[in-house]
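Renewal narrative, Specific Aim 1. Our central claim is that a sequence can be written position by position from structural information alone. The example that follows is taken directly from our test logs and has not been curated for this report. It begins with the structure tokens describing the chain, in the order in which they were read.
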């Protein structure tokens, strides 16, 4: 459009909208969406239903421990079954409450109890603040509100390992024994985890009461992931938009990473977004490969964002060396730039030995490559290179107040001194 021409935004939006012929309903591919059917999880659905069905006869069901690797459908399946149970129970006039708690966010004894009490706040008018009360008092309140009437309360503790690692198993001890202290209501707990090691942190009594029943979620194989994606794709994309190889490729890439359905769905969604943005009429395998790259890069950015400050300064030293044309560098060369940066920031530098450990950590995270090479009679040394572009790293650091002051410094030619 020439300078003098008027920009008609309404027309522009309409034109852009018309060009969007890829997604019929993208929401279907989001993590929060619960599909109407869960292919390849019928066995687990039935196992959970068998354990929970006593509720419909007024009997207390066992506590359940659900485990399996990430993206194997644990959360979606438990939510699906408990919500169905809630619906069916209405027919039998048996009140069922399902309380879902994500322990990655709600990760202390106190907050778990407070969340349970507050779940009933519309009914009871009681709301516990998220800090401040003595824990015993919150627990007493919890018993009081739950026991106000005859009902079944199913407490789902997702990512239960995070809770136990952060705050111990005291809250599980109380909740799995609470029925002996209630007169009207009955409670059962469903714990979900993708980390089996956390069981070692549990008191054996807690372990045996939590694991009265166990339901295992095995990883999906590529064919199963294909079915899951095909079902979602029917609702998410316009007909004929996906090239034949797209779903099998997404499924194969995700199967390689321990059969993670979340990863498979992400690949399909991002491939569609890339195709849409470039105005393509079809999603092709090329888009899937680019989606894979983008997801990996985004993950890398997240990892860099959450590094401790010392590792960020170290990484920035490597960025400066790269921009100065000085990579590969050895540990000593990186260390001397790192020390100067610490001085610039007024930060106490770590020893070279410790920095060598942090270099290994960055290598393990895939951010840098630190290859050990032999220098003949001079012994062995590391050759350090960057695996992420300096541009990407600078972009992440731009929003980081602690490291921001460094972004304007650069190295002085061969001397590797700060400018
Ligand atoms: N059998 C299935 N059919 C359809 N969608 C599925 C199926 N299994 C998993 N999904 C989808 O994959 C994504 C991940 O599933 P979910 O969150 O239940 O995994 P998870 O096992 O709880 O993982 P994590 O341990 O990481 O929390 C969700 O978007 C979910 O809807």
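The sequence written for that structure reads:
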């Amino acid at each position: 459009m020439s300078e003098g021409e008027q920009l008609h935004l309404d027309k522009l939006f309409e034109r852009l909208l018309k060009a969007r012929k890829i997604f019929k309903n993208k929401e279907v591919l989001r993590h929060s969406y619960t599909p109407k059917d869960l292919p390849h999880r019928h066995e687990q659905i039935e196992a959970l239903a068998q354990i929970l069905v006593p509720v419909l006869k007024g009997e207390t069901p066992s506590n359940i421990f659900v485990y399996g690797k990430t993206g194997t459908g644990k959360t979606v399946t438990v939510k699906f079954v408990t919500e169905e149970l809630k619906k069916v129970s209405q027919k039998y006039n048996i009140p069922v409450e399902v309380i879902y708690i994500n322990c990655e966010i709600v990760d202390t004894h106190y907050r778990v109890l407070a969340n349970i009490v507050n779940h009933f706040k519309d009914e009871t008018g009681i709301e516990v603040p998220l800090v401040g009360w003595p824990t015993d008092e919150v627990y007493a309140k919890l018993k009081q509100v739950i026991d106000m009437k005859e009902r079944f309360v199913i407490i789902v503790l997702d990512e239960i390992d995070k809770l136990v690692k952060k705050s111990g198993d005291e809250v599980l001890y109380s909740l799995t024994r609470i029925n002996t202290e209630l007169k009207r209501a009955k409670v059962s707990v469903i714990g979900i985890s993708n980390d089996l090691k956390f069981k070692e942190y549990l008191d054996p009594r807690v372990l045996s009461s939590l694991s009265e029943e166990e339901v295992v979620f095995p990883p999906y194989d590529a064919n199963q992931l294909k079915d899951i994606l095909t079902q979602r794709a029917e609702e998410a994309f316009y007909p004929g938009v996906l090239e034949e190889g797209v779903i099998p490729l997404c499924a194969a890439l995700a199967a390689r990473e321990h059969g993670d359905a979340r990863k498979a769905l992400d690949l399909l969604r991002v491939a569609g977004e890339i195709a849409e943005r470039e105005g393509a009429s079809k999603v092709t395998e090329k888009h899937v490969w680019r989606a894979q790259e983008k997801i990996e890069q985004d993950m890398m950015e997240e990892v860099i964002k959450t590094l401790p400050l010392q590792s960020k300064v170290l990484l920035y030293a490597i960025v400066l060396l790269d921009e100065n044309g000085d990579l590969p560098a050895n540990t000593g060369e990186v260390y001397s730039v790192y020390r100067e940066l610490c001085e610039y920031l007024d930060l106490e530098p770590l020893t070279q030995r410790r920095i060598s450990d942090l270099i290994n950590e960055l290598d393990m995270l895939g951010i840098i490559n630190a290859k050990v090479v032999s220098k003949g009679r001079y012994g062995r040394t590391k050759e350090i290179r960057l695996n992420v572009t300096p541009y990407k790293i600078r972009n992440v650091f731009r929003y980081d107040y602690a490291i921001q002051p460094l972004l304007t410094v650069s190295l002085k030619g061969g001397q590797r001194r700060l400018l």
